[in-house]
Amino acid sequence: MMDPDTQSFGAAQGVGREGPEVVQAFVSRHRAFFILVGVMVAQLLLLSVQITRNHNVRLIQVWAVDALDPFERALHWTVKTTGNSWTSLSGLRHAQQRNQELRAQLDAARSQVLALSEKAGEAERLRALLDFKSQLPFQTIAAEVIASSPGERSNAIFIGKGSDSALTTDLAVITPSGVVGKIIAVFPHSAQVLLLTDPSSGVGCLLEQGRIQGVLKGGSQGLAQLRYVMNEQSVSVGDMILTSGLDQIYPKGLPVGTVVRTTDGNIYKEITVKPAAPLDRLETVLVVLKPTR
């Protein structure tokens, strides 16, 4: 008894052998037809080689050109498109590189303009400071602001002059705009200045209109308070406040600030003053020296 797997294998081999045998039988049966087709193709090729068209061009060449022309056109179009794309890409890269170079040059030019503008502004401030210094009837020394006290609401600054420049405590510090404060600590090469907006500060003042005297004390939010002015005294918003000179620290007649709000209190008015000097952006100041005897 034969194994079913063996029968399947034999059948598969029989099917595999039948393919070539069928093809061979088909060719043998139509051998005359294939010979005829081959002879006709050979004659056609011989005729195409012999037959010429205009300008003695052989027909086979014409056929070859017609057959290859689409491929040649496609190849030419591909090469041309690739070349144009590469040229465009190179141009784009060059333009981007040039754009980056121009941006770098523009940034450098802007930096130079800012630097020159800063130098011009500094020169203008120094010139104004020197002009103001030359008009003062007392001796002063210029100092650069080098730091401020730590804290969000700092009421003190440090200047770059100290005991090496003969500075002492209780010297007034001013700018062309107005009073800044006074020196409260002196070091060999620096000094600490208490701003007039500090609650512990005190400046003897008077109102320019009416010559009413009072004491300026530090307040909040960068403002100050003019105290000890009686309710019956006339004070208006916009009035200028000057130093009175009675505190023996600040020379008389220096601008201190402007009245921004005034209301009556129990006995004294509540007068809010905005400092005349830009205390939040000081750069260079003048220290008023004591007169030499």
Q: What is the terminal-to-terminal distance?
A: 145 Å
| Total number of beta strands | 12
Round the mean pLDDT to the nearest integer and report it: 81
Q: Strand share of the residues?
A: 15-25%
The spatial strand order of the largest sheet comes to 1-2-5-4-3-12
Query: Which stretches are low in confidence, meaning pLDDT under 50 for 5 or more residues running?
Result: 4-12
Q: Helix and strand string, N-terminal first? A: HHHEEEEEEEEEEEE
Secondary structure tally, helices: 3
Please identify the structural class as seen in this structure: alpha+beta
CATH class of the largest domain: Mainly Beta
User: What is the annotated CATH architecture of the largest domain?
Assistant: Beta Barrel
The amount of helix comes to: 40-55%
Q: Please name the CATH topology of the largest domain.
A: Thrombin, subunit H
Number of individual domains: 2
By CATH, the superfamily of the largest domain comes out as Rod shape-determining protein MreC, domain 1
What radius of gyration results from the CA coordinates? 51 Å
Which term fits the overall shape? rod-shaped
Q: How would a textbook summarize the main sheet? A: 6 strands, antiparallel, barrel
What topology does this entry show?
Elements: H1 4-29, H2 31-50, H3 59-135, E1 140-148, E2 156-159, E3 172-174, E4 179-186, E5 191-195, E6 203-207, E7 213-218, E8 224-227, E9 240-243, E10 255-263, E11 270-275, E12 284-288
Antiparallel strand pairs: 1-2, 1-12, 2-5, 3-4, 3-12, 4-5, 6-7, 6-9, 7-8, 8-11, 9-10, 10-11
How would you describe what is shown here?
It is built from three helices and twelve strands. The protein is an alpha+beta fold. A six-stranded antiparallel β-barrel has the order 1-2-5-4-3-12. A hairpin with a 5-residue loop joins β7 (213-218) and β8. Mean pLDDT is 81; it is low at 4-12.
